[in-house]
TrEMBL record:
Its cofactor is pyridoxal 5'-phosphate. It is an enzyme of class 2 (transferase). PANTHER family: AMINOTRANSFERASE CLASS III (PTHR11986), SUCCINYLORNITHINE TRANSAMINASE (PTHR11986:SF113). The keyword Transmembrane helix does not apply. This is Acetylornithine aminotransferase. It comes from Entomomonas moraniae.
Amino acid sequence: MSTITRSDYDHYIVPVYAPANFIPVRGQGSKVWDQEGREYIDFTGGIAVNVLGHAHPALVEALNTQANKLWHVSNLFTNEPALELAKKLTDATFADRAFFCNSGAEANEAALKLARRYAYDNFGEEKFEIISTLNSFHGRTYFTVSTGGQEKYSKGFGPKIEGISHVPYNDLAAMEAAISEKTCAVILEPIQGESGVLPAEQAYLEGVRALCDKYNALLIFDEVQTGLGRTGKLFAYMHYNVIPDILSNAKCLGGGFPIGAMLTKEHIAKHFSTGTHGTTYGGNPLACAVANKVMDIVNTPTVLEGVEKRHQLFVQALERMGKPYDLFSQIRGKGLLIGCVLTPQWKTRTSEIIKAAAQHGLMILQAGPEVIRLAPSLIIEETDIQEGINRFEQAIKHLL
């Protein structure tokens, strides 16, 4: 019997999080059990990470097999799993080259640095400005937190990085007013995740692409949360048929094992020459072995088409469940990145709803102040969807 308790967090961990008052210890598929053996249905997916649920046998086998071969060799050497994964990603996307790292923040850091280096090499040192959007989220490094459009994450850490501006999302006129010959890059989430699961409009992404072309600026799509099948296509840009110059991904890519990737075209990638960027653990054999298996499973018609089917099941069940309580004003998102916008009478009770759901055996997320976010496994069982919604309703009844 473990002597570890939730109170140990308050004694030993730097308090940058406010974790739930239970500790998950085991997971299988879309279910999790805590220290007391209590079962939860997981609609969080580890914040859109556990693309194939918990302890998927194929991922467990891939990890164990690689662990008995080679764990780490550093960037002084390459390795077979990394090369295999790079080929799979570039074959499946617009990209010619891949850079591997350990997280979405690192992938965005690499993307932003590459955009500035590309502009510097081609157009000179005056072309360094980056345009982001309000309420965006791109990571927690100094560069990415400055690029993200939420001051609560960047305030209090000293001077901001120079040359970064923020405009409203889905506002093409604002983007056109902000962009100039000094702009080296525009960074966008095809679906703003952390701020409320807000999809981009088709005309907006098309217009931003045209503006970037006009001003020789690179278009970066932050697909950390939307990539690797989350929206029902391998990457969200494929819904819009708008091709970025650089794309960042993480979360789903490793199915729970930490890995990030930056994808880009050959003529851009060459500006990251030897020594200009790097990471000790990026592209390590363990992470890449797992990610290869994730790609093999997710990038199939069965899984991707199943995401859309599950999306419809979720939307129908949520609308039916929420109607008697006037709970949701809108259900939005794509695939299995779903935002449930709370009505005015409920929007101040988001934290209460999440806690009540946990008390009734359901794990859910928040996105922005008034949105419940669901990002479950892409292969969640239909019975788990229905049971999870039933538990959600019980939680709402408890709050009446």
